[in-house]
Write a structure and sequence with these properties.
The complex is a heterodimer of chains A (515) and B (457). With 515 residues, chain A is of the alpha/beta class. Chain A has 20 helices and nine strands. Chain B has three domains: 195 residues, NAD(P)-binding Rossmann-like Domain (Rossmann fold, 3-Layer(aba) Sandwich), CATH 3.40.50; 72 residues, Orthogonal Bundle (Arc Repressor Mutant, subunit A); 90 residues, Structural Genomics Hypothetical 15.5 Kd Protein In mrcA-pckA Intergenic Region, Chain A (Roll). Classes of the chains: A alpha/beta (515), B alpha/beta (457). Chain A: Belongs to the ubiquitin-activating E1 family. ULA1 subfamily.
């Protein structure tokens, strides 16, 4: 019996073989093997990340072992990166684990290029000065940076990436691309091949609803000056028109024609005007799309090619997507209709390919620089493209709702650390006296950024109470969240958060801000 | 956290503990705070309660279960029982991280318990390689909190019903000490939810049955004669061709975990697809359809199990006010959570004590009653067994799960309620896999002109 590789069968259903491949070719760096760090890594090792490098200068303490599944008491006193790598590696033999017994500050001092080799760097429980330094090194090198921390009952993530492109965003409720408002020639001909008024009942009841809508649209056009049904009233009238087309038996009762019911149900969305979504328009108008050079990533090269298509052969429309939803129909009619869309999609993609080839040639690159598969995938997803840009801006605040206050408190404890070389309230005797010290940090931050906000004393007390604890369940929540965002960054599938995420385990609420 | 400083020795540790072991937890138990539960009192005894006394039941040792056990063990819980009726399959290994390839074939509960007990010294996870239905009230009564990581709605409803049956009332007032909180987590791909149920007080599983959409099945006519998608071809082979061809012997059922079976289905599906010019049948798709695989991701399980364990901790220690009462999570596009209070249903079949009604004309056939019990969105029973008291005796009107009784009572399905001797106002007792207790329905005869199809309760 063949044993399938550990790199999962399950996840491949979600991000496909090509997604799994990028995961297996990736090398992730994770800094600090705290509970949060090892939980993140666990959720990357299990689905089969290619290689990980764990960087940590700390020695394992008794406290570390208490909340960390990947440290045991026998490792107390040993280097934390080494100890954790052993138990993480053991989860999946297809994954290679490395460790570096060094603090990130030391590495930044001596050899910052160390970080250039990674697909992604994840920094866990880093002091502000470290993540600022590391952030600029990674920004220059074009390496995405994910900052994570668990502080008491608060989880926090920040993503910093110059430009992250997503072709396969897999939107939950995507509208179909049926072109009923502007049928392409091949679709028109195919619709013409049907004669609904002279069909046997069996054929009539198993005609795909797309054809039904197309036929009745023609009827509608002839009576409405070739205008689409636009408002609710007109759509109702159009639905009625279709309903009148349902066959009746000798007594005049309507037959059971599910395909007609489907047609009526889909009138709402099927007649949406075909147009280029604004997110895609923005991509076409971006500077990177306009100015293609030999350095341009293939995303922008293909985008430019699609743009050329839209402005020429496409007549203002994207390449046909080529898929249709399942619907009541006999196999033959369905497959034929499906092939009409599929063939058109292939034709359009081929035209896009020509544009891309010409483009590559014009910047002195061989046509093989982008594969046909890439171009096809891009065309299929042209309506769902996304670009995410998250810079490392200086602190900005929007309205001060409760999650924003938490962010402010996290920045305040960073400031506390800067001033006192420790976090507030770590030891019982410190809690009371640190409240006032922390309050000073909060106020100085508010002043510095000219924020006219009243932060309740309760939050200051609570953050002293936390004593920089890292309870396992909060670390585990962040472990799952961060790992999935990391997978999105690596596979370029699904859309990553942009750019600050806060989780409050007290209230089980979360918020995402763009700072 | 800060380098070069020694944490204070922790007093009152159990044997086998080391300095600082519970430091992350203790801060929430031994310090006052502005957001704690009104009942919370900082004390060193709470940690001792977790370590020595508190008993937690974890149901499921799969993707969620493994995470739950780890989370609870590292939060101070030591007395944990875990129930799971499955054995480890090779496809589990990349998510259910307590299992290794050497463990394939062994019970999940056993291996999970062994791993946790070894990795987290002092933790005592007791495994039960059993179905939840194998235990009775006396078993469930011993736990302070029950937390579920199940993949079956039926099982959820069953445990929900069991915990409800443990409630005791004095003079119509619920005795709070009989309440065993139920924390329930579920995931599917990038989506998940976690909820807190206080039986008898908050919305239960059945109160919100409509939140669980029925599983998608394909219509038989599509499968039998009009396939369009590769899935239709696979279903054809699974449902129609396999029972006919019996490729591996007379009484051999299709086993999704047997690669030879799946290979056969795959090959036959390809042939069927070729007949209709359908492309897209792959081995993986075949396996997915045959095993009804819902794609699972380690990260979603991690998030949901973490949320559940946080709630277990809050409830066990009164450290914070628990989730009230439903959390939804989705990380397809960024990360999204939504928290709301699911409401109790006034006439919930499981937790309200409102007698359930069945309204049918006397000329309705028993078949219609059966269909109502299975198809109604608030009931969604699986294979209900209906009994009634007739002429002083308890008679089974219809029961599906035992072949001999099914055969004997099948003719009753075509009989009208009147023909069966049922009277207006009569009580029908219905048993089903979705509940450990029989549900009583009162039969109200409607006039003949009333519509037969029932509107949702």
């Amino acid at each position: 019996m063949l044993t399938p590789p550990l790199s999962s069968v399950e996840e491949q259903r979600l991000w496909g073989d090509h997604g799994q491949e990028t995961l297996e070719n990736a090398h992730v760096c994770l800094i600090n093997a705290t509970a949060t760090g090892t939980e993140i890594l666990k959720n990357l090792v299990l689905p089969g990340i290619g290689v990980f490098t764990l960087v940590d200068g700390h020695k394992v303490s008794g406290e570390d072992v208490g909340n960390n599944f990947f440290l045991t008491s026998s490792s107390i006193g040993k280097n934390r990166a080494q100890a954790a790598t052993e138990l993480l590696q053991e989860l999946n033999s297809d994954v290679s684990g490395n460790f570096v017994e060094e603090s990130p500050d030391k590495l930044l001092d001596n050899s910052p290029e160390f970080f250039h080799r990674f697909s992604l760097v994840i920094g866990v429980q880093l002091p502000e000065s470290t993540y600022l330094r590391l952030g600029s090194v990674l920004w220059e090198a074009g390496v995405p940076f994910l900052i994570c921390r668990t502080y008491g009952l608060i989880g926090y993530m920040r993503l910093i990436v110059k430009e992250h492109t997503v072709v396969e965003s897999h939107p939950d409720n995507a509208l179909e691309d049926l072109r009923l408002d502007q049928p392409f020639t091949e679709l028109k001909h195919h619709v013409e091949s049907y004669d609904l008024d002279n069909m046997e009942k069996k054929d009539h009841s198993h005609t795909p609803w797309i054809i039904v809508v197309a036929k009745y649209l023609e009827k509608w056009y002839s009576e409405h000056n070739s205008q689409l049904p636009k408002n609710y009233k007109e759509k109702e009238a159009f639905r009625k028109l279709i309903r009148e087309g349902i066959l009746t038996n000798e007594n005049g009762t309507p037959e059971d024609e599910e395909n007609f019911e489907e047609a009526i149900k889909n009138v709402n969305t099927a007649l949406n005007p075909t147009k280029v979504p604004s997110a895609t328009e923005d991509i076409f108008n971006a500077e990177q799309c306009e100015n293609i050079t030999s350095q341009s990533p293939s995303f922008w090269v293909i985008a430019h090619g699609v743009r050329d298509f839209v402005r020429n052969e496409g007549n203002g429309k994207l390449p046909v997507r080529g898929t249709i939803p399942d619907m009541i129909a006999d196999s033959d009619k369905f497959i034929k209709l499906q092939n009409v869309y599929r063939d058109k999609a292939m034709k359009d993609a081929a035209v896009v390919s020509k544009h891309v080839e010409a483009l590559l040639q014009s910047v002195g690159k061989p046509p093989e620089s982008t594969s046909e598969q890439e171009i096809k995938l891009f065309c299929k997803n042209a309506a769902f493209l996304r670009v995410v840009r998250c810079s490392m801006s200086s602190l900005r605040f929007s309205a001060c709702d409760s999650e924003m206050v938490l962010y402010l408190m996290l920045r305040s404890v960073d400031r506390f650390y800067q001033q006192h070389s420790r976090y507030p309230g770590v030891y019982n005797y410190q809690v009371e006296e640190d409240i006032n010290k922390l309050k000073l940090c909060v106020n100085s931050l508010l002043q510095e950024y000219s924020l006219n906000v009243n932060v309740k004393d309760d939050y200051i007390h609570e953050f002293c109470r936390y004593g920089a604890a890292e309870p396992h369940t909060v670390a585990a929540f962040l472990g799952g969240s961060a790992a999935q965002e990391a997978i999105k960054i690596i596979t370029h599938q699904f859309v990553p958060f942009n750019n600050t995420f806060l989780y409050n385990a007290m209230s089980q609420t979360s918020a995402t801000f763009q700072l | 956290m800060a380098d070069g400083e020694e944490p204070m020795a922790v007093e009152g540790c159990s044997i086998g503990d080391w300095d600082g072991r519970w430091s992350h937890v203790q801060k929430f138990l031994e310090r006052t705070g502005p957001f704690t539960h009104p009942d919370f009192e900082p004390s060193e005894e709470t940690l001792q309660f977790l370590l020595e006394t508190c008993k937690i039941l974890v149901i499921g040792a799969g993707g969620l279960g493994c995470e739950l056990l780890k989370n609870l063990a590292l939060s101070g819980f030591r007395h944990i029982h875990v129930v799971d009726m499955d054995i480890i399959d090779v496809s589990n290994l990349n998510r259910q991280f307590l299992f290794r390839s050497k463990d394939v074939g062994r019970p999940k509960a056993d291996v999970a318990a062994e791993f946790i007990n070894q990795r987290v010294p002092g933790c005592n996870v007791v495994p039960h390689f059993k179905k939840i239905q194998d235990f009775d009230a006396s078993f469930y009564r011993q736990f302070h909190i029950t937390v579920c990581g199940l993949d079956s709605i039926i099982a959820r409803r069953w445990i929900n019903g069991m915990l409800l049956s443990l409630l005791s009332y004095e003079d119509g007032v619920l005795d709070p000490s009989s309440i065993i909180p139920l924390i329930d987590g579920g995931t599917e791909g990038f989506k998940g939810n976690a909820r807190v149920i206080l039986p008898g007080m908050t919305a239960c599983i059945d109160c919100t049955l409509e939140l669980y959409p029925p599983q998608i099945t394909f219509p038989m006519c599509t499968i039998a004669s009009m396939p369009r998608l590769p899935e239709h071809c696979i279903e054809y082979v699974r449902v129609l061709q396999w029972p006919k061809d019996k490729p591996f012997g007379d009484a051999v059922g299709l086993d999704g975990d047997n690669p030879e079976h799946v290979q056969w289905v795959f090959q036959e599906s390809l042939k069927r697809a070729a007949e209709f010019n359908i492309t897209g049948v792959t081995y993986r798709l075949t396996q997915g359809v045959v095993k009804r695989i819902i794609p699972a991701v380690a990260s979603t399980n991690a998030v949901i199990a973490a949320s559940c364990a946080t709630e277990v901790f809050k409830i066990a220690t009164s450290a914070y006010i628990p989730l009230n009462n439903y959390l939804v999570f989705n990380d397809v596009d960024g990360l999204y959570t939504y928290t709301f209070e699911a409401e109790r249903k006034d006439n919930c079949t499981a937790c309200s004590q409102v007698p359930q009604k069945l309204q049918f004309p006397p000329s309705a056939k028993l078949q219609e009653v059966l269909e109502y019990l299975t198809e109604n969105a608030s009931l969604q029973m699986k294979s209900p067994a209906i009994t009634a008291t007739l002429e002083g005796k308890n008679k089974t009107l219809y029961l599906q799960s035992i072949a001999s009784i099914e055969e004997r009572t099948r003719p009753n399905l075509c009989k009208t309620l009147k023909e069966l001797g049922l009277a207006d106002g009569q009580e029908l007792a219905v048993a089903d896999a979705t509940t450990p207790q029989t549900v009583l329905f009162k039969l109200n005869f409607t006039s003949e002109t009333c519509s037969i199809k029932q509107v949702q309760n």
